[in-house]
Task: inverse folding
C-alpha cells in the first residue's frame, strides 16, 4: 500500500501539465487531444491506439499476439449471441429494441437521448430493453450483460466510433460533466484519470503499463486476466477509482455514463475492436 | 446517622448515569456523526479510506471499546475534511489541466 503511494506521488511530481489550449467545442477538444497523443507517440500509427498498452510496449504486445489464436472471450461471445437471439417470455427479442436489429451499431454508443435528457450506454439500452419487455434487468458489471454487449460489439468490429454531441445544452452539459470527471483529482492519492492516462501513458506504474485516453473504450467489454472473465467499461472505471482510494460510483450512474460519453467521444473515428483481452 | 448515608448512597447511584451522559459513548457519537456528515459532503469525491475508518469506529463502539472508536472516528473526520477540501479545490482546478480549456 505504502509502496504504491510512494510510486504514485513520484509519478505525480513528474507530471508534465499539458499546455492549456483554448478549445470550446467537443470537436476542438478531440482534435487537440488526438494531436497531443500523436506528438507524444509519433511512431504509433493512430489506429493502433485502440490496442491501449499493446500499442506502446513491444513485450506486452508479443504476449498479447500469442493469445489471439484462442481468445478467452470466445465462449462468452457465443453465449451472448445465444441470449441476444433467444426470445423473451413475450416472444420478442433484443433486436426489437435497437436500430438495425442491434447488429453493427456499437460504434454509435453511448448517445445522448434528447427526449429523456440523458446519456444512453449500450448496457443501459440492453437492460431498458429487458424491462420494456417484462424481464428483470441484469447486473451491470459482468456476466450476461457483458456477454451480450460483447456479442453486439463483435458485430461492429472495424466500424469507426461515431459519438455525437447534438446541438443541445443538456447534451453539451453531459459531455462537459464527463470531461470534468476525467480531469478532476480524486481519492486519497489525489489522482485524476488524466494524471495517469493523459500525463503518463507509456510509463510503468508498478506492474502495469499505462494506456492513453484516446482509444481506451474501443476494446470493451474486455476480458482481463485479472478478472478471469469479461467486464464492462464501468467495471474498469470503478477499478481505476478504487486504485487511487476514491469511492467508485455505481455502474451506470449518471456520472459514469457522462464519463463514458466524454471518453468515447475522444475516440471518434477509431475502429471498434471489442471484445478484447487485457492483463 | 443512617439517613444521610443513604442519601449519599442514592446520589452516588444517580450520578453514574449523569456522568455517562458526557462520557465516552457520547463523545464517540458526536465525532462519529460529524465524520459521517462530512463524508457525505464530499459527494462524488468520497475516499475509500474514510469509509474504512468509519466502519472500524462503528465496530469498536459496538464492542464497547470507545477509546479506539473515538480515535477511528477522529481519523475519519480528518480524512473526510480533506476529501471535502479536494472537492472544492477541483471545482476549478481541473480546468487548468484539461486539454481544450
Result:
Amino acid at each position: 500500500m505504502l509502496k504504491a503511494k510512494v510510486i504514485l506521488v513520484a509519478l505525480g511530481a513528474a507530471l508534465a501539465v499539458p499546455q492549456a489550449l483554448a478549445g470550446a467545442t467537443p470537436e476542438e477538444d478531440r482534435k487537440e487531444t488526438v494531436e497531443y497523443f500523436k506528438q507524444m507517440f509519433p511512431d504509433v500509427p493512430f489506429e493502433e491506439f485502440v490496442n491501449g498498452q499493446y500499442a506502446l510496449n513491444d513485450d506486452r504486445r508479443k504476449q498479447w499476439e500469442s493469445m489471439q489464436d484462442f481468445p478467452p472471450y470466445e465462449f462468452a461471445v457465443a453465449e451472448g449471441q445465444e441470449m441476444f437471439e433467444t426470445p423473451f417470455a413475450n416472444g420478442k427479442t433484443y433486436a426489437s429494441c435497437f436500430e438495425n436489429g442491434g447488429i453493427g451499431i456499437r460504434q454509435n454508443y453511448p448517445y445522448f437521448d434528447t427526449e429523456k435528457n440523458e446519456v444512453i450506454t449500450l448496457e443501459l439500452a440492453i437492460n431498458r430493453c429487458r424491462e420494456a419487455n417484462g424481464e428483470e434487468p441484469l447486473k451491470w458489471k459482468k456476466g450476461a450483460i457483458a456477454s451480450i454487449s460483447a456479442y453486439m460489439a463483435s458485430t461492429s468490429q472495424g466500424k469507426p466510433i461515431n459519438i455525437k454531441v447534438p446541438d443541445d445544452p443538456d447534451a453539451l452539459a453531459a459531455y462537459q460533466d464527463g470531461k470534468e470527471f476525467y480531469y478532476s483529482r480524486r481519492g486519497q492519492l489525489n489522482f485524476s484519470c488524466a494524471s495517469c492516462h493523459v500525463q503518463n501513458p507509456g510509463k510503468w506504474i508498478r506492474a502495469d503499463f499505462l494506456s492513453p485516453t484516446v482509444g481506451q473504450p474501443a476494446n470493451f467489454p474486455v476480458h482481463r486476466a485479472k478478472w478471469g472473465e469479461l467486464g464492462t467499461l464501468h467495471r474498469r472505471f470503478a477499478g481505476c477509482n478504487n486504485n487511487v482510494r476514491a469511492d467508485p460510483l455505481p455502474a451506470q450512474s449518471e456520472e459514469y455514463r457522462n464519463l463514458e460519453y466524454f471518453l468515447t467521444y475522444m475516440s471518434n473515428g477509431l475502429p471498434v475492436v471489442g471484445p478484447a483481452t487485457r492483463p | 446517622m443512617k439517613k444521610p448515608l443513604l442519601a449519599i448512597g442514592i446520589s452516588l447511584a444517580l450520578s453514574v448515569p449523569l456522568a455517562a451522559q458526557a462520557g465516552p459513548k457520547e463523545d464517540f457519537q458526536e465525532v462519529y456523526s460529524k465524520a459521517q456528515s462530512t463524508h457525505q459532503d464530499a459527494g462524488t469525491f468520497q475516499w475509500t479510506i474514510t469509509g474504512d475508518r468509519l466502519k472500524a469506529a462503528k465496530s469498536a463502539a459496538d464492542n464497547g471499546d470507545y477509546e479506539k472508536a473515538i480515535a477511528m472516528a477522529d481519523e475519519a473526520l480528518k480524512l473526510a475534511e480533506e476529501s471535502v477540501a479536494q472537492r472544492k479545490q477541483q471545482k476549478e482546478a481541473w480546468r487548468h489541466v484539461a486539454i481544450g480549456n
User: Anything to note?
Assistant: The CA atoms of residues 35 and 77 of chain B lie 4 Å apart. Residues 23-99 of chain B form one domain.
